[in-house]
Write a structure and sequence with these properties.
Strand order of the largest sheet: 2-1-4-3
CATH architecture: 2-Layer Sandwich
Shape: elongated
CATH class: Alpha Beta
CATH topology: Translation Initiation Factor IF3
Strand content: over 45%
Number of domains: 1
Radius of gyration: 16 Å
Order of helices and strands: EEHEE
Length: about 80
């Protein structure tokens, strides 16, 4: 058994100093997150299909992270395959 996974980062806010911050509108952010989740799941499906393996379990995790002056979400889709 082994794990296969796909990760993507979705930037939401970028700070350019103490007074300048670029943020994404809610509708655009939700659309972007939806697109990224779809891409991650599609890429995971392709990885699983190319190995012709049986899926034991699978899941998706979305976490907020800050990298330097960028705040965003990390999307991870994983599967335990036989």
């Amino acid at each position: 058994m082994k794990y296969v996974y796909v990760t993507k980062f979705v930037p939401l806010t970028i700070s350019h100093g103490p007074s300048i911050t670029a943020t994404m509108e809610l509708d655009k952010a939700l659309s972007r997150i939806n697109d990224v989740v779809d891409k991650v799941l599609n890429e995971l499906t392709i990885k699983i299909e190319t190995t012709s393996s049986e899926v034991i379990s699978s899941g998706i995790s979305i976490s907020q992270v800050t990298i330097g002056n960028v705040i965003g979400l990390v999307v991870i889709a994983w599967a335990l395959i036989k």
